[in-house]
Amino acid sequence: MLRIQKISSFDAPELRPYATMRRPVEHEVQGIFVAEGEKVVRRLLESHFTVVSAVFTEKHLEEFRPLIEARPEPVVIYLADKKWLETLTGFSMFQGVLAVGKIPAHVSLEDILRHSPKPRLLAAVDGLTNSENLGALVRNCAAFRVQALLVGETSSSPFLRRAVRNSMGAIFQLPVVEIGKGTGDVARTTLAQTLRLLRERNVRCVAAHPRGTKHLSRADFIQDCCIVFGSEGDGISPEVLESCDELVSIPMPDKIDSLNVGAAAAVFLYEANRQRKNTAL
Fold it and tell me: Of 5, 108, 236, 258, whose CB has the highest number of CB atoms within 10 Å?
């Protein structure tokens, strides 16, 4: 039986995650994230992620009822007026669907390598703080069979609300290693150290770099590899570049010096799949 409660404010303590959607640090500390939009919430409910609660308008409750009733854990449902919810999110096209889920437990690199079949295809991000770009990159990773995403210590969390939204729920399908988080030695690890460890395990680390001396079509992605992407502003840090095997670029006219990181990731990952003859794409 569903536990349904009508609300007209987010003043209650259990509703605080919805009232603080614009303060994502609070959510990260609590180990939760907010999903918004019909497709993203649907994909959350279909996933193995733990769902805490959801906010629907009357219109959407019956549509989502079968998914909620199929969940293994109890999910509290709050019903709210759509126009009031629009004032919360700040835009009039809000779809009237929100949910709070739990960020999964930290995954170790060892777990990823143990459970990823060869040839492995990994991706990593360094200094990527734009959550919307990070979400787009996550979506591309899921689309092009990346087995795990390594999020460097200088990057934003892929579980920020805007990142989750821009991933269109692909974050629920992609294993993520958030480097520099957790406890003990794990919290002190850097992306550069992680890449060096991968190279010791015969995983080739390729930096996507606009001034790379090797063009994309000449790079080798057939064996185990990890493709590293940086921010559009500062790019990949010198320390991380030094930890890579080679720098690879996408050939472009001289007047265009780079692509949006999401677009660049799509090009690189498509080429990796092409070389591996993944004809289903």
Answer: 236
